[in-house]
Every structure is written in structure tokens, then in C-alpha cells.
Amino acid sequence: MADGRAQVRRRAGLRLWLAGGWLALLVLVAIFAPLLAPKDPLEQDLFAGRLPPFWLTGGALLGTDSLGRDVLSRIIYGSRIALTVAIVSGVITCLIGAGLGLLAGFWRGWVDVLVSRFIDIWMAFPPVLFSILLIAVIGPGLFSIIIAIVVIDWTRFARVVRAEAMAQGAMDYVASARVAGRGRMGTMLREILPNVLPIIVVLLTLEMGIAVIVEAILSFVNLSISTDDPTWGGMISEGRASIHQAWWVLVFPLVTLFLTVLSFSQLGEGLKDRFDPVLR
Amino acid sequence: MALLRTILLRLVTTAVTLLGVAVIVFVVIRVVPGNPIAMMLPPGATGEDIARLTALYGLDKSILQQFLIWGAGVLQGDFGTSITARQPVLAMVLARLPATLELSTFALLMAVLAGGAAALTGTRLRETKVEGGIDIAGGMALSVPDFLWGLVLILLFGVLVPVFHISGRVTPSLDLPFITNFYLFESLVRLRLDLTLDLVSHMFLPALSLAIPLAAIIAQLLKQSLKETMHLDYVTLARTQGYSEASVIWREALPNAVLPTLTLVGVQFTFLIGGTVIIERVFSYEGLGNMAIDAVINRDLPLIQGIVILFAVLFTGVNLVVDLMYATLNPRLRHG
Questions:
Q1: ipTM of the assembly?
Q2: Fewer CB near the terminus (10 Å): N or C of chain A?
Q3: Closest in B17, B145, B159 to A124, CB measured
Q4: Cα B244 from chain centroid?
């Protein structure tokens, strides 16, 4: 058994390093995008449209799209939008969802009834349709995407944190904290919160991956930011349409998106194993 | 008695949830800043034209009034008229529903078969490299959502090795003798296997992209319950009676381990149905989800409402069926 555990831990460690490495690289690329991008991501050159990638004859870098815009530069600048959405919407969703879940799970009573009712209603919406609907209502743009993700995904945190807070609330240490004279609010923040924090961190990591996907889906259906701006989803959408003429317009942003989403979820799963007391 | 009460209680909560969905959708789409009526009319339209059309669609009344009128219609099966297509919403939605139902059922079947096979193989060959391989593949499958699998599959089996169709539901030039919109089902009933083949080769990739994450979840959970069951006394007893390992797993462990997986499949099936929205878009599949996205882009309020409500009915309906199935199958709940 001890060997198995060590093996799991080693594999989890490698996974964490690979995933973290890719994401760290992405953060650097996003920060230094103007220095790294070989071309202006918006610059069109109709005479250099649909050039293949560099290893094919007449190729340039990772190729160009139908308007002659450089695919590599657009991927590099696209990382800025993807990471902004991931971090900002992830953190806001986490604060709201985990906060409501904590209140519902620990205070119970009418707060719990209300939050649980809303979670039920939210679960009856197809999330993709819901997000598209919200964007259509608030209008496209970076800000709208973030709002849409927060409005739709807070239940992910609320559900898990509520159940966890409920389980923690029933434990002896909470009762002793209350007996020792700690108030309800104090117990919630000082005793319950630290114990549900690991799971919140895991959920936050997973949520960032989801946010990246949602942004890509919204750009894919042309409801994200203006179609000029470089987004991975927008590039994928164009690549899908011209797949038989220029596969590289689809492949490179898709691979980038794939690795990013995979990294967030592997990081989340790896952290989950790390925090798991049985494995530790 | 207890069972009856559970059923009644679930029906009431389901009704409340659906009402909640209806209210939220109704309110949300009515704060749309753009005027959908103005978008319908040609550029030369006067203010009077706009007012007349607005009144025609009832958009000049208060939100509460509009909701009551709409709700009364819905209870009589009238979901209003689509603004862009100028046809009854219910007829439009019902015409597309079979395409989406066939796609999601096909995907569910694939997921159950693939996930079940992986779980059984993993249990038979537990603690070997094969089980490790299944676990790693499952982890990958789960880490990436259906949207990305769809695009990856398009590249692999639509472009690199073009064996499947990547757009549409059926080859447009084919002459379809169908009277319902359940094409796949009807082609099987009519024994038009040439059409079945064409439909399946269109449906295969979108269904597979929906099935991959679900198959991984099924494999994970079923394998776990199977392995737990394998340690129970009655399984050991069956083994000492000389049954082979494979038949012990299949005949003794599986029936006992399948219940938790069944419940999970039900819940996950609703996620799969939700996934059809974007997958249909990726594969230009003529279903409900594709129509929904168009409706949102065109701001066709009555149509959006109808589709979202229908999806909500599907979601809550599946959950209801799963709960009831669980209540009847689980002896502890039945006698509780």
C-alpha cells in the first residue's frame, strides 16, 4: 500500500509540474505579448492570406488566416483575453459562490432554503444556452463574458461548499469553539472556512479552466469580443469554416486551448490529491 | 405510501423549478436593450409601424401582463409565434426536437457501452498496466469538455482520415421518405439501412464528442463499485464454486454494483443534453441547440423562451425519472 501511495504521489507531482509549467509559460506570454509577437495581431495583408506554416513551401511562422493576419501573433495576444477571463471571473465566481455556500451550509434556515432553491433552478438551465442568452442580453464584450460566467457558475462553488460546511458544522470542534465563547460569525470564518479552503482552491482552479472554455465557446459563436480582436475561440471558429482550405487556422489555437484547459483541470485534480489527507 | 409521498413531493418541486425557469428567462430576455421589432422591419419603417408591430406581439404591455398572457397560452399548448420565422414556436421546436433526442440518445448509448466495457476490462485486469492505462485515458477524457473533443474529432476523422461527415444531419441530396422527424429511428423501422448508414456517419462524431467525458465518468464510478463488490463474501463464495473470474464479475458483481452508476448516468445525461447546444453548432447539426443559438443571435424572444423551457422540461424530466427509478429500485428507500 505504501508503495502505491508513493507512486500516486509521484505521478500527481509530475502532473502538477507539467500543468503549472504550461500555465506559468502562458502567463509570461500574456504579460510580454508585445515583445514576443512577431507581427501586429490585427494587421491584415490580403495578399498574404492563408499562408501555410513555416515548414511548408511559401510558409511563414504558423501561417496566416484568410485576411492575412499572423496566426502565431493572434494566439499570443489571445492568451491575454483567455487569462483575464479565467482569473477575474474565476475569482469573482469563487467569492460569491463560496460565500453563499458557506452561509447556506453553516447558518442553514431561510438562507439555505433560498440558496438551495436557486441552485435547483440553475441546474435546470443548459449552461451553454444560458451563457449565450445572457451575452445576447447584456451585449458582447469582455465585461459581459465575465458577468455571464459569474451568474452561471456560482452554483458550482455554492453546492460543494454548502455540503462541506454542513459536514464541518456537525463536527465536535465546531461545538467546542461555540462553547468556548466564539460567536456564530467568528466560528464560520475562523473554524469552518479554513477547513473548507482546500476544496475552494481546487474548485477555483477547475473554474478557471471552465472560464477559458466558456470564453472560447462564446467567441466561437461570435458573441464574445469584436471579431477583430484575437481570441482563441474566434480563431477556431474561422478555422472550422475554412478547415479544408487552411487547417492551420484551426489546429494551432485548438492545441493551445486544449493544453490550457487540460492544465487547469490537471492542476485542480493534482491539488485535490495533494490536499487529500488519505493520500498524504 | 412513503414512495407515493416521495413521488408527489418530487412532482411539486419539479413544477416550482420549471416556474422559476420560466420567470427568469422571461424577465432576463425582456431587459434586452435592443428592440427586436425594429430589427424586423426594413430601414424605412416609421415609428407608427414599429408601434403597431410591437402591439401585435404584445410587447407594449407590462412584463407581468406579458407573462400572464404567455403563461395562459403555454398551458393551452400555445408558445407564441417566432418573430423571425413567423411560425408557431411549438411546431418549430417540436420539429427540431427529434434530431436532438436522437443525437443525445445515441451519445448516451455510446457512453454506456464504452464506459461499461472500460470498467469491466479494468476490473478483470485490475492492478495491471491495462487498468493504469484505462485510468489515465479516463483522466484525459474527463479533463477536456465535449466542445474541444468535437473539434479534435473533426480534425482527426473529418480531415486527416476523412471517414465521417462533419456537417449536417443527413446528406442533403438524399430523398427522404420519412413522415416523422425521428430519421434514424424511422430508417431502422423501414429497413432503409442505406439511409441509416448515412445518418449514423453524420451523427457519429458529434455523438462521440458528447460521449467521451460521460464514458470516462461511467468507467470510473462503475469500476470503483465493481472493485468494492469483488471483496464481498458472496463474490468469494461464487469464486470458490468454480466460476471463472469473468463470469463472477459479469453475473455476480455487476448487478450489485450498477445502481450507483445508474443514478449518476441520469444526472450526467442532463449535462450531455446541455452539451448538444454547442456540439450541434460545431457540427452544423440541425437540432434544437443550433436553432437556439440562431434564435439568440436574431433576438427571437418567443422562440428563445420556448426552447429554454423545453430544455428545462427535458432536464427536470430526466432528473425526475432517475429519482423515481432509484426509489423503486433501491429496496432501502422502497421500504423506508
A1: 0.86
A2: N
A3: B17
A4: 38
